[in-house]
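User: I'm putting together notes for a lab meeting next week and I want to include a structural view of one of the chains we've been expressing. I don't have a solved structure, so I'd like a prediction I can at least talk through. The sequence is below, exactly as it appears in our construct file.
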Amino acid sequence: MTGRQQVLRALAATIALALIVGALLNFNFLRREEPQPLLRLDTPQANPSPADEGLDFSAPGLDGKEIDLSNYRGHPVIVDFWATWCGPCRKQIPELVALYQKYNKSRGLVIIGVSCDLIQGDGLRAVAPFVKEFRIHYPIALADARLVDNMGVEAIPTTLFLGPDGKMVSRIVGAGYPGEISASAEQLLDGVKGHGSPGKPAESSGHVVNISVVN
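Assistant: Thanks for the context. Below is the predicted structure for the 215-residue chain, given as structure tokens.
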């Protein structure tokens, strides 16, 4: 075999080997599954605000029965977050009691007091005597940390004014000025939007107590 023939044979063997390797690589590539993403990223959706859909919560009452906010659809509703140890709360509760006596039967006004004493304070044992002392006849719900967080309550008192459809009409954070609760209640009953916007509640500086949630 001449030197030229040896070179041609070696070249042919190299080409054949390259073709075999290329075919194997291509076969493995075609069989390889498409890698799956570790995280599916959907188009972000804006979270509904209390102004967009009716508020709702469920919590135990003083008598152990569940209080469901959705049961009061069709009524104007005031939801008041308070605690027995909260000074500003104690100042505004008599006004809520008076509103309930005046408008509950005559105009269907519902008031729900939401006690935060299970989160901070002396707990359930402090609530019943307080309710009796202040002659509160509207339903009292007992909040836990999750309920307060879901409702966006960061300080008490926080008072929500809801229309018959469950949507928030206005919100007052703090005890506010004398008569502010009554004025907002009358606006609610008259079907007029209150002074506070749902996303940016009116706040009364110096008349709120922060809630410290201890996990």
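A couple of points you could mention at the meeting. The chain is about 35% helix and 20% strand. The two ends are 89 Å apart (CA to CA).

User: Perfect, that's what I needed.
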